[in-house]
Each structure stands twice: as structure tokens, then as C-alpha cells.
Amino acid sequence: MRNFELWHKDIVCVRSGAIVQPALVQQHQIGWLMSPNVIRLRVPEAQEGRVLPEYLLHYLCLDKSVAWMRDRAAATAAPSLRSESLGSLRIPLPDLAEQQEIVASLNGLDELDRAHLAVAASVRRTRIALAGALLGPSTEPAPDIIPRRRLEKEASL
What we know:
Layout: E1 11-14, E2 23-24, E3 38-41, H1 53-60, H2 63-72, H3 83-87, H4 96-135, H5 148-156
Antiparallel strand pairs: 1-2, 1-3
Subunit structure: The methyltransferase is composed of M and S polypeptides.
Keywords: DNA-binding, Endonuclease, Hydrolase, Nuclease, Restriction system
Family: Belongs to the type-I restriction system S methylase family.
């Protein structure tokens, strides 16, 4: 099963089904077995000083790259991307220093995006909870608040 184990910084792409952005294998996923539903991309040891897996990931996550993969997925009931098709994708490869700058910039924006999504989700959950508390049925009105029946009567006018 060693041939199917994922290594740190492998890139996995969906082979069949909904073609979505690829993902980078993280430290905690080392040794996981890959599904037959994915294609694993790994920078060969001989090329490690020439290309960054993170650079490849960012390129493959571009809308145009994902669209390219979708276009090449076989037109069947469930789209299927062949590794031969993926191997024909032309990826511009700047020098390693430029790749590192690109990766650092895009990783920073990805972190900011995740932080904003977390804040937005928290605000949404808070709004739902507050709306339920403010607008939901009350069991007993507080003495200094207008009775609910009076509010209902005034609202129907």
C-alpha cells in the first residue's frame, strides 16, 4: 500500500466527479491512503530545487486551470480527468526565488481570506442567535416592557 500513501506537499486533484480546486497534503495527512478518485502530483526529488509544490498548487487553483481540467474531463455521466490530460497542462515556471515570492503573497491572502470567512460565519451565527432571542416567543414579559398583546394589537393597525 506504500505506493498509495500521501506525502507532505503532494498535490491531489479530483479524477472523477465534480472537478474542483486541487489540495496540498498537510503534515497531519502524511501516510493517508489516496482514493482511486484522485490524481496525486508529486515533485520528483531531482526537481525539488527547481519547483515548489505550493507554486504548482496555486497555479492549478487558478480559475482558468480548473476550467481547463473540467474541459478535459471526459463527457460522461460523471466527469473524469485522465492523468495524461493533466500532464499536458503547460505551467509557466519562473526561477525558485520568484516562485517563493508568489507563494508567500498568495499564502498570505489565503490566510486573510480564511480569517474573514471565519469572522463572517461567526457574525452570521450571532445574528441568528440574537434574532431568535429578540423575535422568538417570550414566556413572560419583563415588567418594564410593553405587554406583547399590546404590541400585536398596535402592529395590526
